[in-house]
Amino acid sequence: MKTESFLQMFAYLSRIAKEACGQQLQRYGVHAGQHYLLELLWETPEGLTVGEIAERLAVEAPSITRTVRRMSRQGLVEKHPHPTDARLVIVKLTTKGKALEPVIPQVISHVEEQMLAGLSEVERAFLMRLLKHMLQNLEDIPSAP
After folding, report:
1. Digit-coded pLDDT (tens) for 94-132
2. Which of 17, 39, 105, 144 has its CA 20 to 30 A from that of 76?
């Protein structure tokens, strides 16, 4: 019998959680992962450049460019000229994107509750502590030369 490693289980859990979120978000015309950009723009109604979004979400700029292009086609965001730098655009929410603010956090919260069902508050707090500890361990690894 093959033993599962922690990384295998963690990767599987991550994939299944993303799929569950994606299925629920799809009802609102939002793809998995796009809610992170929506949440960021709900907090910054003046809009952000692609570079600012990438930095805040810790994602590469080309990935954000593709996501913004797709979300623009979906009518969730729109691009505006940057007031002082013609090379940049400001990404802002459309009315449709703004209208999702009361809905999407509830959808994500529901999926999270399903995933954590059966865990006590103490177990949930302990799990968060463990995950933060593991994250810190990985952040402390020196980068390769």
Report:
1. 999 999 999 999 999 999 999 999 999 999 999 999 999
2. 17
The helix (H) or strand (E) run that includes residue 133 is helix 121-139
Whole-number Å distance between alpha carbons of 35 and 40:
8
pTM of the model: 0.82
| SS3 of 28-93 | CCCCCCHHHHHHHHHHCCCCEEHHHHHHHHCCCHHHHHHHHHHHHHCCCEEEEECCCCCCCEEEEE
Measured CA to CA, the distance from residue 20 to residue 36 in angstroms comes to: 15
Please check whether residue 49 is in contact with residue 90, taking contact to mean a CB–CB distance below 8 angstroms: yes
Q: Are strands 48-49 and 77-81 parallel, antiparallel or unpaired?
A: unpaired
